[in-house]
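Sequence in, structure out. Go.
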Amino acid sequence: MKTYEFVTVDVFTDRRFGGNPLAVFPEAQGLSDAEMQSLAAEFNLSETTFVLPPVDPAHTARVRIFNRTAEMPFAGHPNVGTGWVLAGRGRAKEGVLRFEEIAGLVEVKVESDIVTIAAPQPLTLGPEMPAGLLASCVGLATEEILVAAHRPVMASVGNSFVVAEVTPGGLTRAVPDLARFRDAHKEFPALGPRRLPLYLYAHDGKGLRARMFSPLSGTVEDAATGSAATPLAALLLSLTDEQERRYDIVQGVEMGRPSLLLASARRAADGIRAAVGGGCVPVLKGEVSL
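Output:
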């Protein structure tokens, strides 16, 4: 048998047992695809990452991200957490790491106690999801889905979500209904097989509150979703004439795992680019023998 080291960190928080937990295998060379998927299912976290040698030696690593059921092209808190772990092992060059992923190259910057990632793609928008259909998935009335600024819409900067604004009260009361999600996916299959991640947000003073539900892919609710915060920031910027904006997004409160995501968006030559950052706290370390 071969032994593989792992560590876990809580991401987008400054305190243990807050934020979104992540398992990282910093030296995953030798693991098969099936073993990576099995380990991700065994840890039963929203994502687990596996660090491999880069294809291009100018980059830091190739990083593969698995949720409980499938590999992902890009995700937010896995990159922030993996960047924090590798930076602590001296892998950053002048505070920067570059990860090769399915969605493209992800640049990670480490400054003091904050790790920030740049999403690998500019904002793209897909089809709109009917407000009533979305509302039925989370136990809300259709009028609690706000459409004045934008309708519920598929948005991506490397990983796609349906992004929807809801009332503050509706955000607090939302409860995912698995059967409704399954039915809704038949009507709205645009995000792919077994995927209907809904990212709901509400304005809260000068900041935003958010919740993410994706029960069809095994995450009933996520404590912090960086790959959804980034398209949200980009989408909101697209609705203005400004060149850039920053958004503080609080997530995970209803789960008892409060998280703070520092999101930003800017206009670039190829479209609207987004980034997200936050803190990390180490929790566990150990070994797996296979």
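Check: Residues 3-111+279-289 form a domain with the Diaminopimelate Epimerase; Chain A, domain 1 fold (CATH 3.10.310.10). The first strand starts at residue 3 and ends at 11.
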